[in-house]
Amino acid sequence: MDDRHPLFATSPYKALVIGASGAIGQAFVEAFQADPNCTHVEAVSRNTETGFDLLIPESLSAQATVSSQWAPYEIIIDATGALNIDGVGPEKSLNSLQADQLMQAMRINAIGPAMVLRHFAPLLAKGASVYAKLSARVGSIEDNKKGGWYGYRASKAALNMLLQTAAIELQRKNPNMRVVALQPGTVRSKLSSPHVHAHSQLLEPQESVLGMLAALKALPAKSGAYFVDYKGSEIPW
User: Fold this and answer.
1) Measured between alpha carbons, how far is 187 from 5 in angstroms, rounded to an integer?
2) What is the enclosing helix (H) or strand (E) of 43?
3) What is the CA radius of gyration of the chain?
4) Which end of the chain is more exposed for a tag (fewer CB within 10 A), N or C?
């Protein structure tokens, strides 16, 4: 039996992209707009009239209410997140840790997205559907061989646990729902530019997004969340 995800094949679907003003979020919007099977793509960013802001719970609820008029969505992408916090880059040593900066990393990369999931998951279609959130390979505890980047690593690891926990709950009502933590690769963007070397092989946002969409399409239903990269390879938690 072929239990691959039917999205992006022949069935009409609707998509919602949160964090649509960033390089990857915008590329997701463009990919959905170019797909004749996508009948509607809703783009949400801080530029929307609701004043959408990860750190303001009321704005998340307000935007979910607005977005609900086009629901249900077969796929929701959360492309929010930050590497630099208040203009400060990732910490490289214990001596550079600051409590306020660590807390802000958690709020932006874990707590905010968890609240987004709370408000927007009810907008997903029954049956085959996908809730995908951009994560990062550095959020893998098992894969951490270099250390450093304390706040970013910890906040992405926390995000992954929140996604796994939510997946278990949500799939009790909808076993065909996929919850996916996505690693987009090192993408040419404002987020990555201060932290990559001149010789680094960077992905264009469009290349990364096409890879992630292909990975999402190939994922079979299972209990719990996935953690995969843009090539479709699973990453250890």
Assistant:
1) 26
2) strand 38-44
3) 17
4) N
What is Dmax (Cα atoms) for the chain?
55
* Structural domains present in the chain: 13-229 (3.40.50.720)
Cβ atoms of 237 and 140 within 8 Å: the answer is yes
* Nearby residues of 69 by Cβ (< 8 Å), 6 or more positions away: none
- The tokens for 150 are 């304390």
Helix (H) or strand (E) holding 179: strand 177-183
> Which secondary-structure segment (H or E) carries 177?
strand 177-183
pTM across the whole model: 0.92
Condensed to tens digits (0 to 9), the pLDDT of residues 35-62 reads 999 999 999 999 888 899 999 999 999 9
Cβ within 8 Å of residue 74, ≥6 positions away? 7, 11, 13, 14, 15, 124, 125, 128, 129, 130
